[in-house]
Specification:
Length: 474
């Protein structure tokens, strides 16, 4: 019995939806998680545009997806794109870098302002750079069916020579009939024997309502991968082509491993995500503080909204800290309906910008009473050096902070100081949040103790350590 060829199904729903559907950060992750359950071979994501948000999205999707290859395109015109994309993608269980080139004469000049020779050189260079980082490199010839045949063959060979293991050919305009699809692909297989040893993919739009039929014809011509969408997009339908292959695949000795019994349920869930009409943003006033208790965040708010709220509170979070804050936000809103800005503030203080402590091993004595002023004696370590400071103040907290300033030789503007009870009773735990402002940037520290003064000292040192870490790493 002849062995059946396995046809890989690559899902491009996020890529296709990007042009006409606005999905939240969380919805994009959930969509990829659902599609991964189907058993698709790969999930295509969009090129990085907004560096902070898009890199974080890719990292989050890499954590959520267990089975499929995560494929992300690099820029042909940005020299730093390959390394930046790989840094975001490399933690995926299976990762693929893509080089996409518009190969028709009209598109290469209109989109990239390049002539044929310049485009071929750019493709070879980018594929080679991607290949230096991973074996999983895909070259995608966009608008291939309207390209000059000689040039198309030349640029495919350049990509193969540079190390591409997957070559995808696109009927971007959707102008081919099924018979024309066979002729187009058969000609390439005949002229480029090297394609037989590689994975060849096919993608087409559904302008003539023939995308699924053309996809089946592409398989009959020798293609091993199809680019599909699980939502009602203008491309090959994932559910449609899987149904065709399940019924007619035996005639081509071809099969796919997508779990057919789950398609209807999961594609319905994808439809719900893509059709959801949610309020994507919170209407923030021009300026507000942590005391604006009327403003709340809920489970329906997007990643972008939560980070915008953090920025309004004065925080400039890095990519990793944004991820930490978002993860805690999601866990919290799953247990309660809303989160206030004050609670978000506490999440940021507890989770973001945690760094190795330059100042540690704190010891202190504070004397105060109703007839004498407060006096603080502070001892602590700065890396391996012991330092100390003695200072008075208007109350125990003020004296403690003053003695820290003398010991460290550092003075920062105290932007906010909050105290709240964490537990009840005589031995109640107290939580403090300290915000220090340095060079226009806000740094938040958190401390918890049955001694509220001790909690304040811990929070203050926590915030100082974040400032010092950035200075020493610069």
């Amino acid at each position: 019995m002849d062995r059946q060829k396995e046809i890989m199904i690559c899902d491009c729903t996020l890529l296709d939806a990007a042009t006409h559907i606005e999905l939240s950060f969380r919805e994009k992750i959930e969509l990829c998680r659902l599609i991964d359950r189907l058993g698709v071979s790969a999930i295509d994501l969009c090129e990085i545009r907004q560096k902070k948000i898009d890199r974080l999205l890719i990292k989050s999707i890499c954590s959520a997806v267990q089975r499929a290859v995560i494929a992300v395109p690099v820029s042909l015109t940005d020299p730093g794109s390959v390394q930046m994309t790989w840094e975001a993608l490399k933690e995926a269980r299976k990762a693929r870098l893509q080089v996409i080139a518009p190969v028709s004469s009209v598109q290469m000049e209109y989109l990239l302002h390049l002539k044929a020779a310049g485009l071929a050189a750019a493709v070879e260079s980018r594929v080679s750079e991607c290949r230096s980082l991973t074996e999983e490199v895909e070259f995608i010839a966009s608008d291939a069916t309207r390209s000059d045949p000689e040039f198309l063959r030349k640029i495919i060979m350049a990509a193969i020579k540079a190390g591409a293991k997957t070559i995808t050919l696109c009927d971007t305009a959707g102008v081919l009939t099924p018979d024309e699809t066979v002729l187009f692909l058969s000609g390439l297989f005949s002229d480029i024997p090297e394609l037989a040893d590689l994975t060849v993919g096919f993608h087409c739009s559904d302008e003539l309502n023939l995308a699924d039929a053309c996809a089946f014809s592409a398989v009959s011509a020798g293609v091993g991968m199809l680019k599909t969408t699980s939502y009602r997009g203008n491309a090959i339908s994932l559910s449609g082509i899987v149904k065709i292959l399940n019924i007619k695949g035996a005639s081509l000795k071809a099969k796919c491993t997508v779990e057919n019994e789950q398609i209807k349920r999961i594609t319905n869930q994808v439809d719900q995500i893509c059709n959801a009409e949610k309020n994507r943003a919170v209407a923030f006033p021009e300026s507000f503080s942590t005391h604006d208790t009327d403003i709340v965040l809920s489970i329906h708010d997007s990643f972008e909204t939560v980070i915008m709220a953090a920025e309004k509170l004065g925080f400039d979070l890095g990519v990793e800290d944004q991820q930490k804050v978002w993860n805690v936000f999601i866990r919290t809103v799953e247990k309660k309906e809303t989160i206030s800005l004050k609670e978000l503030d506490a999440i940021i203080a507890a989770e973001a910008m945690q760094v190795p402590p330059a100042y540690h091993s704190i010891q202190y004595v504070i004397n105060t009473g109703n007839t004498i002023g407060a006096m603080s004696h502070m001892k602590l370590m700065y890396h391996n050096q012991e330092i100390e400071g003695i200072a008075s103040g208007d109350g125990a907290i003020d004296a403690a902070f003053n003695s820290i300033e003398i010991a460290t030789g550092r003075h920062y503007e105290l932007d906010d100081f909050q105290i709240q009870s964490v537990t009840e009773g005589r031995e109640a735990m107290g939580e403090t949040i300290v915000k220090l402002r340095h060079e226009g940037k806000l740094y938040s520290g958190r401390g918890i103790s049955t001694d509220i003064v001790g909690a304040g000292i811990m929070a203050y040192i926590n915030a100082v350590n974040k400032i010092v870490y950035e200075e020493e790493e610069a």
